Amino acid sequence: MRGLLRGRLGTAAGFALGTVLLLGVAPAVLPVFSLGLLGKFLCFAIVAVGIGLAWGRGGMLTLGQGVFFGLGAYVMAMHMKLADASLFGGSGVPDFMSLYGSGEVPGWWEPFRSPAVTLLAVVLIPGLVALVLGLAIFKRRVKGAYFAILSQALAAAFAVFLIGQQATTGGSNGLSGFRSFFGFDLKDPNNKVMLYLIAAVVLLLSIALARQLMHSRFGELLVAVRDQEERVRFLGYDPATIKTVTYVVAAVLAGIAGALFVPLVGIISPADVGVIPSIAFLIGVAIGGRATLLGPVLGAVGVAAAQSALSSTFPSFWVYFQGLLFVLVIGFMPGGLASLPALLGRRRRLRTAASTPAVPATRVRTPLAAPPEPEQNATMPEEARR
Amino acid sequence: MRVSVNKRAFLPLAAAAMATALAGCGSQIADPASAGSTASTGTSCVDTSGSSIKVGFINSLSGTMAISESTVFDSLTLAAEEINASGGVLGKQLQVVSEDGASEPTKFAERAGKLIQQDCTAAVFGGWTSSSRKAMLPVFEANDALLFYPVQYEGLESSKNIFYTGATTNQQIIPALDYLAEQGTKSLFLVGSDYVFPRTANKIIQAYAAAKGIEILGEEYTPLGSTEFSTIVNKVRDSKADAVFNTLNGDSNVAFFRQYKSVGLAADTMPVVSVSIAEEEVPGVGLDNVEGQLTAWDYYQTLDTPANKKFVAAFKAKFGAERVTSDPMEAAYTSLYLWKAMVEKAGSFDVDKVQTAADGVTFEAPEGLVTVNGENNHITKTPRIGKINSEGLIDTVWSSPEAVEPDPFLATYDWAKDLAK
Fold first, then answer.
1. Considering Cα of B143, then B144, then B150, then B156, what sign does the dihedral take?
2. Enclosing domain of residue B324
């Protein structure tokens, strides 16, 4: 049974189950408001899939995913503002620009009038930014804490930049008040369900993409780069290329998630793209289990849902609880909750090993088990390493 | 190495999934003219059958704004208890559902949606920052629900789904400028936090100054929460302006006033007029840093009206003698009573009936009699300039002779013609 679940049949079955739950059961049982909330959580889950790849598999602590999330979101928001302005105002100038700005649409907004350009830009802009950054950072062999600090500084700078541009990005108010989405009326509950379904489909697609990557030669190399970058280099691969590609994939996923977040939630502001949301993206991933396929997804949805449910009842308590959970998981269960079965399994094996001759080192590969942190590898027996 | 083959299983699934998503499509906007006015998502779910009626409070009880917004929450709570003790609204007791906006605009939008769609509240009260209001506005418009917003703001807005019970610019900023002009101020220096309220306020001040021959000697912004003011304070000192107009928010005021004092500037030589420092903020900024400085609001705890004496006494009795009352708290307290009066005039909790009944509704508020203007959903208010006294309270030094009609778009001011197109 266990073997079956881990096999390709199990994957297909799990995927089918997820599809049925997300696309069939949820829309049937949840009211439109809760479905919208779930859609928002799914957006966070799409970001989490990317972080799982970059951080869990690639060892890159991406503390600045808010930037790519924000790029995708602002691109979509700009298009929706322009589309609303020509649909409803007739003037083609978004409302806030005439209130706070010159009343003219700046040139760099114009391309986003086109739906096709917008959809391309949602993918290309975060991707290109990540490509340039990735090449600049990884080719210079910047890694570890330095990479984390750099990416976080980027998120802070991005938020400050947006706040300063009151007339063209809406400043601290951000962009909100959307009425249509590619011609669909956002007030119509059917369209809200459609938005949710799109988010669910994109999440399923990104999980499939992540699985393909994880189980390919590329995925093996990525884990190798995380654990022993120097050895990979001596084997003739360029770790910078491998890391950059992963970073770009994570950025594109975050960008798409941002673009879906805007019509679902109805607002994007600098408060959704700065340092704090960037860290919040990580928390769910860490708690769920960053190196696994589904850990980040379930962690992101779980943490967001718990926050939504608990923060109204215990407004100030929630923040402490979330922090405590994060500290406990990082401190005592670096593989996240997904590593719990594997941890228990290892204890059982150790007990058996004590009574019977040692198990051979050819450990069955368990995609769900989180490999320990590289730093901790040093103190672990060789057998536990991968 | 095992290469997965789940691509084969996956492709049909993806196709099926996409088909499902697209099958869910609803109405498209064919005719923009009618789409703009089409009714919202179904009918309201407010339950008016029982002996109680639900209302929603939405304030930041966590995050950076919690320190300010929790005072508004307290004051709303007091108003709800008073109304319940005196028989409720249309004979129904108020049942409060409170939500935390967590100082994040997105959270405000989400929680507002919950209060309307899931909790089915008859009206919602709260919000503080402009960004929280801007985030909630489309939610209230899309669901055709009511929000009562209790804080002074930058104007240039009017929604039939929002009642603004705080001051708009012609009830706070312009009277402050009138007062300064009356005092013979010939030059001003503008200092503000970098967000929509200070930027809009300063745009208005620039236009006013240009029309009335006041010289603006500098306009400086710092990021929200910034505490580095030595450069700005030196610029202010070197400018030798007659007065400073301060639209800084929150913690920045502490650093600004401390450094202002340390370079030898003082209230009697170069007064600072602040529009974001009320009784509640004075201890935080430090009384010795701001004593004698000016503020512009429509309400002070020291006001000598019967309604205010009752309000202050009731507030202190409930929350402690050391607590103070401020302008946004008074506006929030007033907003709940105004809604009660509107509902009673309409004889119904229905949003459209309340909207129709709103025009001309009055309430004897702690700040004086206020009247709802049904055209722009703002209320009349009495602007007052105050001076921070040695106890940390604010004494009125100038008061508008009568309540001022709200004019959020400054349509009645010739010099403001080009501000809002």
1. positive
2. 52-166+308-381
